[in-house]
Amino acid sequence: MNKKKVFELAKGFRGRAKNCIRIARERVEKALQYSYRDRRNKKRDMRSLWIMRINAGTRQYGVNYGNFIHGLTKENIQLNRKVLSEISMHEPYSFKALVDVSRTAFPGNKAAVPPKKQGLAMLV
Amino acid sequence: MAMACVTSSSSLFSTKPLSSSLNKTPFLGFSLAVSSTPSVQSNRAFKICCQDKAALIPSGQQWMFDDLTGPDVWNKTWYPKAADHVNTDKPWYVVDATDKILGRLASTIAIHIRGKNLATYTPSVDMGAFVIVVNADKIAVSGKKRTQKLYRRHSGRPGGMTVETFEQLQKRIPERIVEHAVRGMLPKGALGRALFNHLKVYTGPDHPHVAQKPSELPIRDKRITKQK
User: Fold this and answer.
1) What ranges do the domains of chain A cover?
2) In the list A66, B132, B150, B174, which could disulfide-bond B94, CB 3.0-4.6 Å?
């Protein structure tokens, strides 16, 4: 592309990358590559942010994210993670109701007995 | 080739009488005027200032929302503004380190300082609380770590490695043990360094932060107290 377009895209860059065409062209190309890649990464990052927030919100009630989602899928509640994270932040009572629904549907793995650790008694 | 495209698309659009031909360009298929009525039929959209996309609320549900002139909080992921993480409004917690296992206590402290226990957690923003640790010299470790755990530091020069055991460091600077443990559990970087300043460790049973009215740090770990 021509120099004018390059300099327009190079606004805010550091040092010579915004002023000198040879450096600006390289940096602008890289910036466009990053923006292409990050349009796809943004979707992943947002989902992981929602999951972190839901995890924090449910752990306040003693339920972790995995068991919470398992309980919701068992009850066929199809709320997505974006909406769940917004509910956990702005509608605490509704979120508590959701956590209770999930807990009744899937109480957790406490029913499974953990394997007993055999110490030196094994040798006896 | 460009001319052929123009003629073909203009002939295509001339057959559609409903489209507003005034704003249509030969290349684009839609009108360029953004502020005209949006094309959504079922939802009555409200134009929100300083935002291109209006909040789409179905006309049957609009009675539930009172403030439709502000930014769209229902469809965009919340990001904290500067007013949401002022240091003066953050909670303060105090925890007594007597006979608590070092790593388990440090983990709980780091979670609270980072803000990972809050539903409003944001990784790039300091949303956490302040934590005060008292009686740091009475912290406990299991097994033979008291004599065998080594703390190393290097001055940068050749032969400049200093190695100390847990016991020796506790005699010298007891606060550093808890600080070292928590610092290893906080993120490394500028934000992590800023978070580390929210940890206050004291050797004795009292602390100078009474004015901040610290509350008891909620600990969920059942194995944090050393079994005698």
Assistant:
1) 3-40, 42-105
2) B132
Q: A89 vs B74: CB contact, 8 Å cut-off?
A: no
ipTM, two decimals? 0.82
State pLDDT tens for residues B146-203: 999 999 999 999 999 999 999 999 999 999 999 999 999 999 999 999 999 999 999 9
Q: Do A56 and B116 touch (CB under 8 A)?
A: yes
Which of these, B34, B227, B216, lies nearest to B108 by C-alpha position? B216
Is residue B202 within 8 A of residue B132, CB to CB? The reply is yes
Contact B162, B96 (CB under 8 A): no
- Cα distances from A18 to residues A1, A15, B15, B17, in angstroms, run 16, 6, 48, 48
H/E segment holding residue B132: strand B130-134
Q: Are A13 and A24 in contact (CB under 8 A)?
A: yes
Q: Which CATH number, 3.20.20.70, 3.40.50.2300, 1.10.1900.20, 2.40.110.20, labels domain A42-105?
A: 1.10.1900.20
Q: A36 near A28, Cβ under 8 Å? A: no
- B116: closest CA of chain A, how far (Å): 6
Kindly report the number of other CB atoms within 10 A of residue A28's CB atom: 21
